[in-house]
C-alpha cells in the first residue's frame, strides 16, 4: 500500500494546490490523515503548524473573507472542510506575480475530502454551499491582529463570481475597502 495519504494537484495560481485526503476505510469506518509535514513539504508547506482554527458557519450562502496577514506575518493556510461544503476562494496578492489579483475557487466538502493549500501572499474567503459548515484551518504563523488585511469580497476589481445569493456577512467584512491604486500588492 502506498504510504502517500494525499493526492496533490497544481492549480492555475502558482503555489496554490488542491490536496485530496485519502481515506483508509474498513467495516468500522475510516482513518484520514489531516496533515503530514513530510508529504506536504513536497506540496510547498515549508513551516511548522503555528495555529489551528475551527470555524462553524451556520447559514447556507454566508461569505467570510477576503482575509490575509501583512508581511512579515504572511501566512500559509491549509483550509479543510470537515462538515458541509464550501466554495473556497484564494486571491493572488503577490505584487510580482503574473496572476496578481487573479482568483481561483474550488469546492471543498467533508465528502470530497479536498483541502486548499494557500501560499503566503494570498487572500482567502469562502461561501457556504450548505448549512452548518465547519472549516479547520492550519496556519503557518500565529494570528497577529495588527497585521490583518482584507479585501472586499464584492469588489468588482476582483470579480469573484460567488455561486449563491449572499445571505450573511459580518459587518466588518461588509466594510472592507475596495481596491484603489494605493494597493500595490504584497511583497515578502
Ligand atoms: C483569524 C482569527 C480571528 N480571531 C478572532 C478575531 C475575531 O474576534 C474573531 C473572528 O474573527 P474573524 O471574523 O476574522 O473570523 P473569520 O471571518 O471567520 O476569519 C476566518 O475566515 C476567513 C475566510 C479566513 O481566511 C480567516 O483566516 C479565518 O480565520 O476571532 C482569532 O482569535 N484568531 C484568528 O486566528
Automatic annotation (TrEMBL):
EC assignment: 5.1.3.13
Stored Pfam families: dTDP_sugar_isom
Enzyme class: isomerase
InterPro entries, per the entry: RmlC-like, RmlC-like_jellyroll, RmlC_Cupin_sf
Catalyses which reaction(s): dTDP-4-dehydro-6-deoxy-alpha-D-glucose = dTDP-4-dehydro-beta-L-rhamnose
Gene3D superfamilies: Jelly Rolls
Function statement: Catalyzes the epimerization of the C3' and C5'positions of dTDP-6-deoxy-D-xylo-4-hexulose, forming dTDP-6-deoxy-L-lyxo-4-hexulose.
Protein known as: dTDP-4-dehydrorhamnose 3,5-epimerase
Organism: Neorhizobium petrolearium
Amino acid at each position: 500500500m502506498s504510504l502517500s495519504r494525499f493526492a496533490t494537484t497544481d492549480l492555475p495560481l502558482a503555489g496554490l494546490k488542491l490536496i485530496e485526503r485519502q481515506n483508509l476505510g474498513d467495516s468500522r469506518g475510516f482513518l484520514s490523515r489531516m496533515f503530514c509535514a513530510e508529504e506536504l513539504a513536497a506540496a510547498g508547506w515549508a513551516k511548522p503548524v503555528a495555529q489551528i482554527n475551527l470555524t462553524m458557519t451556520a447559514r447556507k450562502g454566508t461569505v467570510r473573507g477576503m482575509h490575509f496577514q501583512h508581511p512579515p506575518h504572511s501566512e500559509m493556510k491549509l483550509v479543510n472542510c470537515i462538515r458541509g461544503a464550501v466554495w473556497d476562494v484564494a486571491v493572488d496578492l503577490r505584487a510580482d506575480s503574473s496572476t496578481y489579483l487573479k482568483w481561483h475557487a474550488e469546492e471543498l466538502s467533508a465528502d470530497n475530502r479536498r483541502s486548499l493549500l494557500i501560499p503566503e501572499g494570498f487572500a482567502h474567503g469562502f461561501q457556504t454551499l450548505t448549512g452548518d459548515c465547519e472549516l479547520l484551518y492550519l496556519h503557518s504563523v500565529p494570528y497577529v491582529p495588527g497585521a490583518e488585511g482584507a479585501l472586499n469580497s464584492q469588489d468588482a476589481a476582483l470579480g469573484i463570481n460567488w455561486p449563491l445569493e449572499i445571505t450573511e456577512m459580518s459587518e466588518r467584512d461588509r466594510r472592507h475597502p475596495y481596491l484603489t491604486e494605493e494597493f500595490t500588492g504584497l511583497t515578502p
